[in-house]
Specification:
This protein has seven helices and no strands. With about 140 residues, it is an all-alpha fold.
Length: about 140
């Protein structure tokens, strides 16, 4: 089996973490060849995991380390302060394609955008108009 290959959906982190756990167990193997091989594999997998976790982060949220899955989980929790914060950050700072992706995946609806906008007091007027027009356009389709 090749350590650096395999199919996965979404993020590679769970698959790499499982392989890393297996490789770490082999570090204490009695055969020095196996232990040496395991050290190389652990080093390779730790680098892969680090890169996968970095790539999975929402890069446009510069003040927190939030992964895509964490942000999407916030959007799934109804009536929570985290959800309001997540929608606010999306509308204020995210690339428009990221917002459209979440709308396309039904994690955020145009109606939710419209109902959240009045609660986002720090949103500038131009951004507010842009997302209002976008949401209304989707609703009228």
């Amino acid at each position: 089996m090749q350590v650096g290959s395999g199919a996965y959906s979404g993020t590679a982190v769970p698959m790499v973490s499982a392989r890393l756990e297996t490789a770490r167990h082999l570090l204490s193997d009695g055969d020095p060849n196996v232990a040496d091989w395991a050290r190389e594999v652990v080093e390779f997998l730790e680098g892969w995991k680090h890169r996968a976790e970095r790539d999975e982060r929402e890069s446009w949220i510069w003040d927190y380390r939030i992964r895509r899955t964490e942000l999407e989980s916030m959007l799934r929790t109804t009536d929570s302060p985290q959800r309001l914060w997540a929608i606010g950050r999306l509308l204020k700072d995210a690339p428009p394609d990221r917002v459209r992706e979440l709308v396309d995946r039904s994690l955020l609806t145009p109606e939710e955008i419209l109902s959240t906008l009045p609660k986002l007091l720090d949103l500038d007027e131009g951004t507010r108009r842009k997302w209002t027009a976008y949401a209304r356009h989707l609703i009228e389709r």
